[in-house]
């Protein structure tokens, strides 16, 4: 049998006071309204002994907030790396006094619509629309009527919702600069072709990383020495692309892999060819997957700041809900702004000077 919920009336009856007096004491206004210390002590003692818990939802609705947020994702919670994004969001919500509800769509628009409706039915104060991999997508019309932040997602059309994404362009620039500063002038690409549009379809990361790389090389009067487009950024494709690279350029000196899974295949192919990293070939990559540290030597990789992405998205959302009173000052910004978070380099010795 379930235990009956203790009410404010129960506390008042046990303490021998009115419900109004009990409410004022438990809301911290007892001294302000000159309720005697003895009465306040009785109310607090009764509340503690009965195990009274205020109805947060009712209180929130009276104040116009439920102190809850919704997170609607595709498959963001299924991977270890993206799990850090959820962790950052949960911790930020907790630190700012909010609870986070999470729902996954598995990419089904009908489930997404149902989740958004369900969260709005439960009076969440705002919603984060989230993707596992950075992508461009339409924002459901229903989210234009509720405080919304896009997490790891860019809008396909103008929207009121700000977005939080990794700064992939800056990471591409930094990857090219890392190799140029080491003296490399011929830089090969694994995962994307040499041309500005030679990336897999629907990959924001691919487009932006390539943009940054080409920008820095062009400023030095250079272009990629070769590029090898991979439709799937996985180890087998990295291995195949690197063997094709070696067929055309038997002694490459520097390679940029477009993610760490490709780098895993590149390492295998280079070692099969008798080439040593970094003595013969410098390799740099992106994402900072766990395998980046498992490789020997570990691959120097630009990390996606998953936890910081989740935290910043919550700060922005609460800033929109509260007008900035409970979020960090730099979180408050104009509608539709794209916030790009830096991708720090995790150097592991896979790059050597020429």
From TrEMBL:
It comes from Cellulomonas iranensis. This is LacI family transcriptional regulator. Residues 6-63 form the HTH lacI-type domain. Keywords: DNA-binding, Repressor, Transcription, Transcription regulation. SMART domains: HTH_LACI. InterPro entries: HTH_LacI, LacI/GalR-like_sensor, Lambda_DNA-bd_dom_sf, Peripla_BP_I. Pfam families: LacI, Peripla_BP_3.
